[in-house]
Design brief:
Shape: rod-shaped
Helix content: 40-55%
Keywords: Membrane, Transmembrane, Transmembrane helix
Largest sheet: 6 strands, parallel
Order of helices and strands: HHEHHHEEHHHHEHHEHEHEHEEHE
CATH architecture of the largest domain: 2-Layer Sandwich
CATH class of the largest domain: Alpha Beta
Number of helices: 15
Distance between the termini: 44 Å
Organism: Streptomyces lunalinharesii
Protein name: Wzz/FepE/Etk N-terminal domain-containing protein
Length: 465
């Protein structure tokens, strides 16, 4: 798994293999999100808009946005509201402003209740308009502001006088009269254009007249993030973290799969690979202790990244593999011995393979026969966390049976060290592979005569002592 690319199929295998654990973690994440929502009370946001008449450039609108959320405006709004324990510093994090199309500035305020949010937005808009008008009034020179208005009055009077002169002139009887009327009309038009240009060059008076586009609307729902959003985000976060943790563990996993790696870690030779029919999760070994029951309940006692069992041949082919392992084991030993069959604790496939191997060894010729026989086998299960192998008694060696891809090099090295401490030489290794039975057309299911139900333990033997 450490060299495989991460695909959607891999994530699907994690969800199928760990759906119970992922469900529990998602529920815990939802509870975490709910607890977070209790620490941060819900907020409500109300908004009010201000229209800026006239022509405004983009940088001027950004300046007005900064003015709307300036400390002066916020402090004045806080003083006008008079909320206990809420000053300008606290309000700065609750107010915001932005410029929209059409010279509109939207000011929003967030509070713990809809009524407070509405009052905050209205007060911020009121203080912003007041402060902006004061800035425009203070920056304008009264004499300079009065000059254009007087000029407009003069232009109006002049235009009126021009109209009177045009009416008093000869109404089109002579050429001189027509020219006079034309010149007077052009003069009136030129004066009107000059006034229009003057209005465009002095827009400060229009810009100071900001218009509040109605009171803020009372919010009907909570502002983001709401309690529902926090609960959902917590569930999704814990779910994703669990999936990422599974992927990271698989990437960093050092479980040995190749036969040479397993043989090197145990310091012995590989005698062969045997096949065990996969019984599915319903036939998992019973847990020991409360933690084992919890692991079984959550489904973490079975590996999610284990390869799918491949399809096997018939029962005769599987039995032949066990007999060949017994033959190789007999060839490896100079004389018949009594051996310990060491199985890692929790490796159900290896445990069943060891039971089958004990049976096949019992069916082999006895140690006293002329052509030699298979060693007498006794099965023991060894914990990989703290491996402990029984001391040497009648046995003079150990045969390690395990499934490939389930244990790391450090765990296998620990088992080999435990065998050496108990003065047992590892005489061989047998790998167990879980397989699926090939479906047959006949309705009758073949009888697995060579796999009796045995209680494999320290007293299971493969023949008479």
């Amino acid at each position: 798994m450490s060299d495989d690319p991460i695909r959607l199929a891999t994530i699907g295998r994690i969800i199928r293999g760990r759906w119970r654990l992922l469900t529990v973690l998602a529920v815990l994440g939802a509870l975490f999100g709910y607890g977070t929502s209790l620490l941060f009370p819900p907020g409500y946001t109300a908004s009010a808009s201000v229209l800026l008449p006239g022509q405004w450039e983009e940088r001027e609108l950004l300046t007005q946005v900064d003015i709307a959320t300036s400390s002066t405006v916020v402090d004045r709004a806080a003083a006008a509201l008079g909320w206990t324990g809420v000053g300008g510093i606290e309000l700065r994090d609750r107010v915001a402003a932005k410029a929209a199309d059409g010279n509109i500035i939207t000011v929003s305020g967030t509070a713990d209740t809809p009524e407070r949010a509405q009052r905050l937005a209205d007060q911020m808009v009121h203080q912003f308009v007041t402060f902006a008008a004061r800035i425009a009034g203070d920056s304008a020179d009264p004499e300079a502001a009065a000059g254009p208005e007087a000029l407009r009055q003069t232009v109006v009077q002049t235009s009126r006088r021009i109209t009177e002169l045009a009416q008093a002139a000869d109404p089109g009887r002579t050429v001189e009269g027509v020219q006079t009327r034309t010149e007077l009309a052009q003069l009136r038009t030129a004066l009107q254009e000059a006034v229009n240009k003057l209005d465009q060059l002095t827009p400060a008076a229009n810009k100071a007249n900001m218009v509040v586009m109605g009171p803020a609307t009372r919010p009907a729902g909570e502002a983001a993030p709401t309690r529902v959003q926090l609960v959902g985000a917590g569930a999704v976060l814990f779910f994703l973290l669990a999936v990422i943790a599974h992927l990271t563990a698989a990437r960093r996993g050092r479980r040995l799969r190749a036969e040479p790696e397993v043989a090197e870690a145990l310091g012995s030779t590989l005698l062969g690979t045997v096949e065990v029919l996969d019984e599915g999760p319903a036939h998992r070994p019973a847990g020991r202790g409360p933690w084992a029951r919890v692991r079984a309940l959550l489904g973490v006692d079975v590996r999610w990244d284990a390869p799918a069992p491949r399809e096997s041949g018939d029962e005769a082919g599987r039995q032949l593999r066990y007999r060949r392992v017994c033959a190789r084991l007999r060839d490896e030993l100079p004389a018949p011995r009594r051996l310990l069959v060491v199985v890692p604790d929790g490796d159900e496939t290896a445990r069943r393979a060891a039971a089958r191997l004990v049976v096949e060894a019992g069916h082999a010729p006895s140690p006293g026969s002329s052509n030699g026989g298979c060693p007498v086998l006794r099965t023991v299960e060894v914990s990989v966390d703290r491996p402990m192998v029984p001391d040497r008694d009648d046995e003079t060696g150990a045969l390690v049976v395990l499934s490939a891809g389930s244990w790391t090099a450090a765990e296998l090295t620990g088992i080999a060290g435990a065998c050496a401490d108990a003065r047992h030489e590892v005489v061989g290794i047998v790998l167990a592979d879980a397989v699926r039975a090939r479906p047959t057309r006949s309705a009758a299911r073949p009888r697995d005569a060579a796999t009796p139900v045995l209680a494999v333990g320290d007293e299971a033997t493969g023949g008479a002592r």
